């Protein structure tokens, strides 16, 4: 080739700084669409580069096409005739160089591009200038993912760490999660995920063209996080056996999961549950430039029949198994992605947060994915809109019907609850570790006319939903039954409860109290203990009945993410058909684990973390391990193992580390043993930037 072009400098560090991608790399060009970047062309001889003669070509995908928007040929101040035209202007010239300012369209396909330069349009051979990655751009007003507030952009795009809320509606616990979207190789893994999706395998040219659309990309990612239909990242497992893999509760973040997926030649990682699926999807979307946050819905309904009813069955012995797959989960985790919805009528009414759920539950257009479902459409009951609105609406709005199975096998309808499902919908606050309640984004206040109107509207608009039959109004209860804790329940100690009974008249009752272990998705795991006794309630005098759940009985069952369901069934001895029911979900708090950091928290300076855990049990803990994870502080997780930890003894793990990124970082530690599963803690460390020697 005859060319005066000797070198093309992509100015990676300068461009990446301007495009908010410097945390990913300073040696590779990673830019955001709709925003100008610079490159400098160097010549081997003075004044030989003529800007007006320069022709540049950018292309992405295996079959780049100007018609599909995956290829563009353009010159300085000369736009292409392609569907999506790039633009170049002269920024600066010297005797031997020309610096160009290049701007991509705000709707260009994301992904890896190649750039080539021809110094003379009559030449048939071009100079390959290099490769770069183009991402979505929340800072660009024309981009569909534009987010106006800078504090929100810092939280939902740039924050490498977050919180996921779990537990139960009365026991909300925070779980620190390491998203790690800027860690080395995570961007390439996310791009590989797009390449492995079945739509790309079927028609790569169309798929690469569709990557301009965050609606399309987020839907693809939702399907690829689970492995039900493809070579997705995570295999779900809601059993009690995690043989051959990692218990979902053991993960501290997304980086280890995504790297394990890559190292296994993109075979599914074992195992995940909803908060793990959600955490990994949040990493991928933030990495690609789509603002994203993790959301928890407490008392979340899984309505497979579309009748907006979840039936729960009880007997004298507590919760009864059922054939239906309908259930109410203690909580369910999904993510919200921020984007415009020009594909829906009434725009921009539905722009903003969209529910995306990578947990494989129901099929959507034949694939295990969910969303994007506009949160504003869920609020108003506009369930005919794309995507998966009826299912998500039911998750936050279904009614629960409680049945009691009598001794003769017959079923008695005890109550219908219209306000139970969809409580304390939670996400992390912007700029702090406080819990933000966003229930009002999803539903109007329970019991108001607006809430009932949205419910009726949802049924009217959707062919998949049907209105529940009106429940008969139950007579006012003659006996009050309540379950209360005597003190905060702590894992490793006995749990003391009291059953409070009150009646306006003398009552002789048979009281059955049961404690059972429940998986967080509402499935009965095992019975723990139960008591039956006859009691007399005097008129207008409260009777208290103590009930103890010994650790010796629940300890081996309450592993990972399980809860204890306590039910009290009171039957009137004079009127055996009259039954009273109370229930309570208990999530025992784990014993404490701590992290402390010593040293001057400055980038590239040596620090030390100390993790401590005290064994509170009178017996030794076996097969102990402590895992520490911290993007920006540790390039990979650190694991320390201990065969056993004796009664009342302490384990201390010292971890030296050198921060390699500045800013507020979160270190996450996990203590695991045969007796206590995956006790977590975290601490924030504000790393000051290195300003030179």
Properties at a glance:
37 strands; single chain; 5-stranded mixed β-sheet; alpha+beta; 6-stranded antiparallel β-sheet; globular; 693 residues
Gap between N and C termini: 46 Å
The general outline is globular
Class of secondary structure makeup: alpha+beta
Strand percent estimate: 35-45%
- Number of helical stretches of at least 4 residues: 13
| Tally of DSSP β-strands | 37
Unreliable stretches covering 5 or more consecutive residues: none
Task: Give the mean pLDDT.
Answer: 93
Specify Rg, calculated over alpha carbons. Answer: 29 Å
**Main sheet characteristics:** 6 strands, antiparallel
Explain what you see.
This protein has 13 helices and 37 strands. The protein is α+β, with helices and mostly antiparallel strands. The strands form 10 sheets. It has a 6-stranded antiparallel sheet, sandwiched between helices. A 5-stranded mixed sheet has the order 2-9-8-4-5. The longest helix is centred in the middle third of the chain and has 15 residues. The chain is globular. It starts with a strand and ends in a 6-residue tail after the last strand.
Write the layout of secondary structure elements.
Elements: E1 5-9, H1 12-18, E2 29-32, E3 36-43, E4 55-60, E5 71-75, E6 87-93, E7 97-103, E8 111-118, E9 127-135, H2 150-158, E10 161-168, E11 171-178, H3 186-196, H4 198-202, H5 204-210, H6 214-225, E12 234-236, H7 255-263, E13 269-272, H8 274-288, E14 292-302, E15 309-315, E16 318-319, E17 327-339, E18 352-356, E19 373-374, H9 375-380, H10 389-397, E20 399-405, E21 411-417, E22 423-428, E23 435-437, H11 439-442, H12 449-461, E24 480-485, E25 495-502, E26 507-518, E27 524-537, E28 543-549, H13 551-554, E29 563-572, E30 579-586, E31 593-598, E32 607-614, E33 621-629, E34 638-645, E35 650-657, E36 663-672, E37 679-687
Helix pairs in contact: 6-8
């Amino acid at each position: 080739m005859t060319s005066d072009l000797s070198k093309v400098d992509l100015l990676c560090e300068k461009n990446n700084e301007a495009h908010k991608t410097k945390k990913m790399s300073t040696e590779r060009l990673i830019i955001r669409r709709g925003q100008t970047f610079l490159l400098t062309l160097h010549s081997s001889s003075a004044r030989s580069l003529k800007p007006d003669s320069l022709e540049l070509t950018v292309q992405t995908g295996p079959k780049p096409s100007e018609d599909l928007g995956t290829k563009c040929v353009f010159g300085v101040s000369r736009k292409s005739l392609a569907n999506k035209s790039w633009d170049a202007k002269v920024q600066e010239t010297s005797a031997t160089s020309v610096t160009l300012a290049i701007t991509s369209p705000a709707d260009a396909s994301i992904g890896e591009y190649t750039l080539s330069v021809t110094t003379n349009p009559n030449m048939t051979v071009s100079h390959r200038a290099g490769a770069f990655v183009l991402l979505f751009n929340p800072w660009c007003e024309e981009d569909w993912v534009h987010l106006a507030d800078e504090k929100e952009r810092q939280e939902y795009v740039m924050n490498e760490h977050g919180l996921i809320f779990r537990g139960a509606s009365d026991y909300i616990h925070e779980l620190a999660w390491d998203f790690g979207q800027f860690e080395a190789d995570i961007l390439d893994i996310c791009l590989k995920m797009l390449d492995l999706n079945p739509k790309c395998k079927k028609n790569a040219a169309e798929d690469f063209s569709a990557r301009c659309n965050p609606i399309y990309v987020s839907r693809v990612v939702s399907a690829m996080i689970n492995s039900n239909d493809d070579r997705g990242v995570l295999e779900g497992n809601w059993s009690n056996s995690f043989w051959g893999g990692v218990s979902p509760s053991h993960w501290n973040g997304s980086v280890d999961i995504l790297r394990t997926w890559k190292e296994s030649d993109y075979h599914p990682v074992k195992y995940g549950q909803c908060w793990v699926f959600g955490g990994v999807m949040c990493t991928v979307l933030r990495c690609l430039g789509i603002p994203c946050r993790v959301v928890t819905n407490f008392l979340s309904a899984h309505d497979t029949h579309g009748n907006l009813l979840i039936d729960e069955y009880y007997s004298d012995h507590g919760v009864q198994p059922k054939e239906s797959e309908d259930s109410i989960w203690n909580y369910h985790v999904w993510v919200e992605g921020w984007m415009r919805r020009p594909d829906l009528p009434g725009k921009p009414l539905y722009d903003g947060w969209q529910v995306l759920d990578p947990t494989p539950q129901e099929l959507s257009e034949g694939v295990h994915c969910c969303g994007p479902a506009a949160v504003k459409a869920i609020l108003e009951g506009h369930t005919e809109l794309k995507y998966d609105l009826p299912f998500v609406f039911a998750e936050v709005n279904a009614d629960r019907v409680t049945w009691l199975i009598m001794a003769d096998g017959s079923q008695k309808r005890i109550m219908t609850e219209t306000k139970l499902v969809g409580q304390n919908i939670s996400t992390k606050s912007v700029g702090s570790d406080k819990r933000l309640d966003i229930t009002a984004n999803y539903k109007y206040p329970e019991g108001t006319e607006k809430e009932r109107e949205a419910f009726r509207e949802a049924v009217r608009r959707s062919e998949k939903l049907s209105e529940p039959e009106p429940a008969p109004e139950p007579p006012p209860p003659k006996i009050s039954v309540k379950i209360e804790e005597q003190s905060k329940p702590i894992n490793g100690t006995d749990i003391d409860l009291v059953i409070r009974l009150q009646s306006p008249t003398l009552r002789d009752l048979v009281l059955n109290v049961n404690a059972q272990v429940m998986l967080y998705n509402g499935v009965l795991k095992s019975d723990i203990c139960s008591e039956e006794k006859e009691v007399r309630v005097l008129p207008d005098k409260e009777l208290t009945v103590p009930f103890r759940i010994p650790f010796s009985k629940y300890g081996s069952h309450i592993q990972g993410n399980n809860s204890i369901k306590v039910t009290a069934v009171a039957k009137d001895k004079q009127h055996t058909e009259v039954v009273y029911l109370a229930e309570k979900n208990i999530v025992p708090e784990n014993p404490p684990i701590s992290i402390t950091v010593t040293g001057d928290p400055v980038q590239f300076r040596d620090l030390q973390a100390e993790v401590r855990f005290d064994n509170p049990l009178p017996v030794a803990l076996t097969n102990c391990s402590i895992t520490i994870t911290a993007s920006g502080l540790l390039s990979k997780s650190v694991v320390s193992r201990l065969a056993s930890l004796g009664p009342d003894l302490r384990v201390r793990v010292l971890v030296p580390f050198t921060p390699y990124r500045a800013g507020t970082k979160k270190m996450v530690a996990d203590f695991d043993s045969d007796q206590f599963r995956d006790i977590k803690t975290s601490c924030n460390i504000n790393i000051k930037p290195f300003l030179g020697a």
